[in-house]
Amino acid sequence: GVLLALATVATAWSGYQASRWNGEQAAAAGRANAARIESTRASGLADAQTQVDVATFTAWVDAYARGETDLAAFYRRRFRPEFAPAVTAWVATQPVKNPDAPLTPFAMPQYRLAARADAVRLEANAEALSAKARTNVQRSTNYVLAVVLFAATLFFAGMSAKLPSPRLRLALLVMGLVTF
Description:
This protein is mainly α. It has 5 helices and no strands.
């Protein structure tokens, strides 16, 4: 009777825990998906900003190479605030005279996009949340396994009461205790 009672309570508790951890997994997966969507959004913004930087840089270099100083100055004023420091640092390397200078300002350490950093941070957060979701799935699965084992315990304990042979009853009770 004690084994039946313990197995019944343990089965109910494990079922509750399996459901709870399944819910936690779903919540973590939802947060991970939201972070991935935000990361993709930030990455798209960074890509668009890079395209603007490339376009204005190309136009500036072209105007500079043709000696159109007014047009070159016009484009230089239109460099995005995140891009301008990289151009300034690149120009300081004297790329026209210095064969060791980086090919473009995009290779300079000063070329940093906040949107790109946000995308990386959000992706790392999404991966951490995904890992948490996987952990929660494993916990839920472990509790489902416990439900199955406790149900087997209930079966062995319940059947032991129905058998006429004391040896068979004892054997089923032992199997139930081992399973428990």
